[in-house]
Amino acid sequence: MKIQKFLILTLSTALILSACSKTEEKAASVEENTVVAKTDEVANAPEGCPKNNTLVAKSEEAGTAAFSAANSWFLSWGPESGTFYFMNYNDFDPKKYSAHEIKGTDVKASFDLRNKDKSPLKAGVWNYRQKAENNDLSWLNISTEKLAGGVFDDNGKVEITYFGSDYVCGKVTATDSSSSLNGEFIAKFYDWKF
Questions:
Q1: What are 49-68's pLDDT values in tens digits?
Q2: CB-based contacts of 192: which residues, under 8 Å, 6+ apart?
Q3: How confident is the model at residue 194 (pLDDT cuts 50, 70, 90)?
Q4: Which conformational region is residue 38 in: left (phi greater than 0), alpha (psi within -120 to 50 degrees), or beta?
Q5: How far apart are the first and last CA of the chain?
Q6: Which pTM value belongs to this model?
Q7: What Rg do the C-alpha atoms of the chain give, in angstroms?
Q8: Per residue in 114-131, is it b (16+ CB within 10 Å) or e — as a string?
Q9: What is the mean pLDDT of residues 62-90?
Q10: Taking the C-alpha atoms of 144, 145, 149 and 155 in order, what is their torsion angle to the nearest 10 degrees?
Q11: Which pLDDT band holds residue 122 (cuts at 50, 70, 90)?
């Protein structure tokens, strides 16, 4: 009788532990597809800038990734052009902007702004792939370990609300059938010297 009770207790414990393990595996699987970075607030955000980012990238590969203001950059290539970089990892170096190897749950979103007539960038609107306009926004990218894919929205746009030597701020609106990049941002300005 004691052996039977012991076996029943042992089997019950094994079943409970197995069920807990399956729940943890499922939770880990859900976490793999949902990558959310911590948000932070910029204390003295300039007028025209949000205090923190609401920018979110979504795709099958990236899941849902949010980007904190601390991990948001605008690299100026000269007065007429620059690239935005938003990432959910902490070791981005604007001097070596392509040094980080994207792996695991890392997500990076990026896009260029350029004025075709070489005039300096300033607050305004950049519409996606509008060849007739001076403000050129030719691509919106979401990169993961497995795929660097574009967001192809003919109505996509980037609106810059503040352009300074400290921050560049604005809003992105772009959604296609499999991915999106939407929300407000405040990105640190970095004058990249060649």
A1: 999 999 999 999 999 999 99
A2: 75, 76, 77, 94, 95, 97
A3: low
A4: beta
A5: 82
A6: 0.78
A7: 22
A8: bbeeeeebeeeebbbeee
A9: 96
A10: 0
A11: very high
